[in-house]
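During the first year of the project, the team set up a workflow for recording each protein of interest as an amino acid sequence followed immediately by a discrete structure-token representation. This format lets reviewers and collaborators read both layers of information side by side without switching files. As required by the reporting guidelines, we include two representative entries from the current panel. The first entry is reproduced here exactly as it appears in our internal archive.
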Amino acid sequence: MLRIVAQLILALAYGTGILVAILARAIPRRGWQPNGRIVVMGTFFNPNWYHSHVTPLARCGLREVILVCDKPADPMENVRFVCPPAILSAIASRAIAKFLWTMLAGIRYRPDLYMGYHIFPGALFTLVAARLFGRPACYQVTSGQLELEGGGWHAENRLLIALKKPSALIETMALALVRQFDLIVVRGNDAKNYVRNAGYRGSLAVITGSVKERAWQDWPDRDNDLVFVGRLTEYKRPDRFVATVAGVAKQIPRVCAVMVGDGPLMRELKDRAAALGVRENINFTGQRKDVETILSRSKIFVLTSRWEGLSIAMMEAMAAGAVPVVSDVGDLRDLVREGENGHLVGENQIDVFVEHISRLLGNPLLWRRCSLAAARDAIEFSGIEAICARWRKSLTEAIGDASRLEHSK
């Protein structure tokens, strides 16, 4: 019954969005004078995620990024926070409250473009707002085809989770909604190909989150052998990280691992580590604000997810010189070059994770070569200046008036 209800709600939501998008295009519109503002609707509970995505937008030459979110994050130049009151979010739901505040922001600031993260509900609501105000709409596909395939049933949104299994109906409607956007931004080539194969013919750009260049630390300055950064949910498969640590510990008994993040699996993971005899090898830190420092003091970054777009945590780790040993899923291979700056491992091949990690930990010269290559490649691929340039180009084209986008400093 829950699955049926979820399908009905999603079908109604997507159907309404598609209908509004189509009908609104038929309304005669007067041209507008771009003012260099955009509205971005999203959830920014993770400070690293916020800085990675919002910083290049704020620096790409826009006059102002109007961020519609649950509560203000760290202040940033050229960023204005527009947050609905908590009581409205409690009564109407967080998503509806942010949609209403997006509409109010549209009335007050007359932005040039509306942007949303994730197809439901962020991108859906910003598409509706954009069409009602006669402006272009941008959808950021943060998790690759995971967000759309099967209707997005393995995403973390509660309504999508309620689907429990793939839904052909919801996938069809979600892809029909996707085709209504003026600009779609993906993290890597696999996601780009998926969106094109789904019939999208509009502007499509590959733009990742951004990472900062930092001083490289050599082997003696890194006291963490392994590090995992991510929310402790089934989607990230942190249980595989614990199993990998146990495998490495058989060869390197004093291996030191750090698990950064929190989530519903925390207690279960600690129990599993104890059962495997590696509870003392793993430091479960919970959520931290000094992730950059932890990464710069770590030798190897391990990502065991069953699906990813192009992981920001991995890019940050590589920029800090941590060598990636990660699942070969999603768009991770866009940045990881097998044997040169890290390793790609078949999903759930714990023995292969253990093999690559043990070899790197046993050979500082090999690690150093991969570490330097990882740091160089991450900055070239996703350094702030490179990402600013991609955003400037894509937004200028979508808005249609380059004169209102100032040159970045």
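The second entry, processed by the same pipeline in the following quarter, appears below.
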Amino acid sequence: MPFSHLRHLMPSGISSPLMPRLKKIGTPQICKTTDEALSAAVNLILRKGKGSNTNPVQLFIQGGAVTPTPLLQALATVVQENKTSFFRTFHIHLEGQLLHLQCPNITDLSFFAGANVRSAINGKANQEFPVRAKAEYVPIFLSEIPSLFRREIYDVDIALVQCSPPDKHGFVSLGCSVDVTAAAVETTKVIVALVNDKLPRTYGQGTLRMSNIDFAVHTSQPIYNSHKQGGDMTEKKIGEFIASEFVNDGSTLQLGIGGIPDAVLASCGDRKSLGIHSEMISDGVMKLMECGAITNHLKPYARGLTVTSFAIGSEDFYNFLDDNSAVAFLGADVTNDTALIRTMPSMTSINSAIEVDLTGQVVADTIGTQIYSGIGGQADFVRGAGLCPDGKSIIALPSRTKKGEARIVPFIKPGGAVVTTRGHVRYICTEFGIASLYGQPLEERCRRLISISHPDDREQLEKAAYERNILHRTCL
């Protein structure tokens, strides 16, 4: 088999369990409260000599729908009790209120920033929720975050996670957030888990033995629901454009959450033999699996399985994922591996952006100097789909923001950061059409992008393009 990581996936599509490399199998300590569990875990690491300013206690936090909020509340209490010690937390997108950000002896690092941490990262005061922690953003491809743990660039002391109750064989599941969590769990010294009977049990690379957990607290509470039904008319129009122009029978799809992906999927009910190889999935995938449009039977890897690294959606969606062996949750280093993505039949990658300049540079994680989200998996899939012989990568965005500001712009806002370079970009889609940029010179790119901008912005864009010397007047 050409990919070394295929050894993790057995023919049935269900992988071998995670093996935390620094842990011995034992009996987890069942704690009555999250405060008790966190205090025991932190004290264990502090006794090993960690906790100084130069050698802080390092904690990984599972993210997305599975964010272990009760553990974060306990973490805030425990850290405040250890005021002379230093801590560092790291994570991808988190849901809920982040009480640990009130602790001045914590440095919080986001590999993907959500709304609840943006103000802290951007140094903005928040009177309703005082932030005293130092919060920073780490720009990195989603595919490479697991290597930070495996190479000990981030030496994980404690992993804070949720898991399902153990099955009859003693195995638990990390649910619908395997992404970078699997690598953190494999490399951590201590695992603290909320054992939640409301967490969907999933298949793939997110299983481990209950006996690998050090401290456990039993709970029964719904995980985060973040599915918005439908989208506005602009998003629906963009989604319909993409579905009609790019999604054919047998295509393999990567898409995220929101109105545009929902509209794409809603327009694909009559397609046949679709596949899913994506960093995330939501309700729209469930609907197409149930109606038979998604079969995954043409994919060379994990044939017959919908492949993802995390999921977030409605309660019905979580019920669909529970004990569903047709969905494989794998690490982001697998799902987002460009060498694997490029092998998918007619790989079709659909991502969004904040703004695009007239040469095709795509800004996706910043608004000017302000951090908005993260690099995530956009660059991984744009490149992977671009390397696929019949692949298509699409950047989809409304022509204007909800405040009426242009999103196709002459210049990137000062301080803005490019996530997808103009050399990688293939197609840009708005509600006014599709611009194919691959292999086109700057002047033609510019004309095509102006043609799909908002009609009220085109004159100004054309003027700016002449001033930038991208568009040239005919010389006589």
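For the second entry, the following points were noted during internal review. Residues 131 and 399 are 35 Å apart (CA to CA). The chain has a mean pLDDT of 93. Both points are flagged for discussion at the upcoming steering committee meeting.
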